[in-house]
Amino acid sequence: MCANLVHPTDSGESFTVSSRYLAGTVVSSLHKLKDIDNKDGGFFVFGDISVRVEGRYRLRFSLFEIIRDEVVHIQSVVSDVFTVYSPKAFPGMSESTFLSRSFSDQGVRIRIRKEHRIQM
């Protein structure tokens, strides 16, 4: 699975110079993990992806399958619209979700926020 940054209207247009906009790992392999109901599932985890330029965006996640010497596009899905803030306007990190903490407990390398902080 790979992630690309797209406009909030998702007109199909990606940001062509993704290294200018995205930082971190933009490709993920499938992880077999337990979900919040303790059931096995397959998850693609993007634990360190971030956007460098403030604005409103979506992420398009595209699933590919490698079959012998060929890469086949299977499906794409887009995220909800999100806002990237300037450092001065950033409202602070919220507490990590139960699912995120569960993945971390299972060995996935993601940063976990244990308490909610609000910048004043």
Structure description:
The chain has 120 residues and is mainly β. The protein has one domain (1-104): Velvet domain (Immunoglobulin-like). 10% of the residues lie in helices and 37% in strands. The protein contains two helices and eight strands, in the order E-H-E-E-E-E-E-E-E-H. The protein has helices spanning 18-21, 98-105, and strands spanning 2-6, 22-23, 30-34, 40-44, 50-51, 55-67, 70-78, 82-84. The strands form three sheets. Strands 1, 6, 7 and 8 form a four-stranded antiparallel β-sheet that branches. Strands 2-5 form a two-stranded antiparallel sheet. Strands 3-4 form a two-stranded antiparallel sheet. It is flat. The termini are far apart. The model has no long low-confidence stretch (mean pLDDT 87).
